[in-house]
Fold Tripartite tricarboxylate transporter substrate binding protein.
Amino acid sequence: MKRKTFAFGLAAAALLPAALPAHAQDAAPVRIVIGFPPGGAVDSLARTLAEKLRTSLNTTVLVENRPGANTFLAMDTVKKAAPDGRTVLINFSPAFTIYPFTFSKLPYDPQKDFVPVTQLVRFPLALSAGANQPYRNFDDYRRWVKAAPGRGSVGMPGAGTSAHFAVLEMGKALGAEVTPVPYKGGAAVLADEMGGHIGAGIDSIGSKLELYRGGKIRLLAVTGAKRTPLAPDVPTFDELGVKGLDYPSGWYGAFTTGGTPPDVVQKLSRALNEALQDPAARKQLENFGLEVAGSTPAELKATIESDSRFWQPVIKAAGFKAD
């Protein structure tokens, strides 16, 4: 991270309310809208940022949880908001980089209805297994899967996500039968891993760290081009000779309503980037398995374009449709 990119002062961040119409300042707080329920990593991210923004922007900042429907409810709220920068969406990367290729029709236009503000945090996916399994590392797991067809079931939260396509890519790389098994949530996958009901599971590393540190599960490998500082002893798939899984990490980004003036977007981006640099905030986010990122609006836009170019052929080859 380049210091010059994100070393913005409080004075610059505090200009955001001044960039808005006076009546908006008087009548409306800043709203951070998320498509996830209270509790958990995304809610913690939103509330951590809201606390910092209340000070830097000198205004009321609220967090609004609108879970369900693949985060479409939250996106609809922000899509229909006034384009004044006072309504902020925090959402995960698939809404902008995967859903456009898995849904025949989306209730939003990812390019026109939203303006990228900043990439907030990144996280790799991790392949894990219950501590009672006979394999202690990925090489053992690879041999175990290849020894008997049908063993390679991998649990994942939902279908049509980066975890889903990671399982398919892993099967190709291993030359073995590996079947993605969708669950209703990550907690259910972990429960079956620990109970020995499924050989492995894949999800964001943050959902696994506590159990890993407690010796309840083993982390076999992580996605990405390099090891994660959240679990530096866990190798990447690429290190292990499994190609095709060094793809972009998952991430959460901040967006605002399409049509918001560029100067307002820039000021909002500066305020959020400054909040991310707070040591206490960084520590809190790391506890949830989130690596602080930070970016300019243009950099987030470029990341979306790059990730989309990566995922489109992968999804096309899988032939998956979410609707």
User: Anything to note?
Assistant: The chain has two domains: 3-122+249-318, 125-222. The mean pLDDT is 89. Residues 81 and 257 are 6 Å apart (CA to CA).
